[in-house]
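Quick question, first post here. What does this chain look like in 3D?
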Amino acid sequence: MRIGSVLIIICLAFNSCSNAEKKYFSVVAEERSYIDCLVRIDLEALYGSDVPENPGLFLEQEKVVEQIAYQADLTMPGYTVIFMIEGKLDKGDSRSYFFQETGKRGVEQETPALIQQDEDKLVILNNESEVLTYHISETMPPPGIDSLYRRSAYIHPLVSPGGEVLTRVQPPDHYHHYGIWNPWTLTHINGREIDYWNLAKGEGTVRAKAILDAFEGPVQATFTTLQEHVDFGYEGGERVTMEEFWEVCCTPAGPNGQRYLLDMKTTFRNVLRDTILFDAYRYGGGLGYRATGKWNEENSTVLTSEGIERAGADGTRARWCIVEGVSDTEEGRSGILFLSHPDNREHPEPMRVWPAEINNGELFFEFCPIRQREWLILPGVDNVLQYRMIVFDGSMTAEEAKMYWNSFVNGPEVSLQPSAVRE
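> Answer (accepted):
Ran it through. Tokens below.
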């Protein structure tokens, strides 16, 4: 397990270079508008093989120069770095940047996205305020409730920038609901059912096995965890049927981190010799969310990318979905924009959205890639699903949601030429 800080140059091992020349590039929104967009650039594409040791990144607008935080992108090879364009980048607009050797042992920048970890949990902080907690150890149900409901490998609480807890675990109507989680429901191996979702059946569960790595930096904090899908009913005793890797990344956005991006990539594989069948069902996998108990049909709303509200959303498909409701924040409202990546199975993805007339109007949301079609999980094959959540206080418009989706799946063009001619 690796835990450390990814500052501007750590883990990149840049070559020494005394050249202080400015290396300009531009970011251009040619066809779409974006908001709070992450941008990646390969420094070797700018410098060739002679990448300087301590390059600083600067935004230049109307002769005003501002230094910008960036960090190594450890998901990409070589000298790739990542930074954020905060706020809107409207269609047709561009931003001009340059890298330049700073002559220092790394530029000192704040690290707003921090990680704290012990044997029971991993916590991501944004400017010292809790964003989310991932549970490594199993959580027991309330006294008097069957211990089969215990569970690890989930996120709770998920907290808005203003401090509103947006998730709920072990509600009395569904003790197996755990904040943000994604177990598969109606599955079969050689004709025998294993339900990893409905824990009271005693057929299976999902457990956190290990935190594989965790990094924090001036742009984002990220961790990777290994989770095991466990079959309780195998004739030789319980066994692991699938391994799953969660990559979770938190990026503060907006002034003073007033919103944040939460990326979740799940990669799972069948570790058996037999094929696993995910039956078509209205619950299972994808990204499941049990909302705060404050929300009901009177004080919360749902809006999908197709313009459908809560009453008609269940079973429909969407690229994104806004879920929001009343909160005790200054804005009086908080929520989450859920984004589905176009590479996901069945995209635009089917959803499970509780109709208002059930469960006292409380809110449950899920992207469910098996809602309308079964899925054969072949041995040894990696299966990938990617999601982004924009966590916010106040309200979000459909136009903002569309721009966030553009930022997630397309991104503006990066040109190695400046956006304007320079003397």
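The helical segments are 43-47, 310-313, 398-409.
The radius of gyration is 22 Å.
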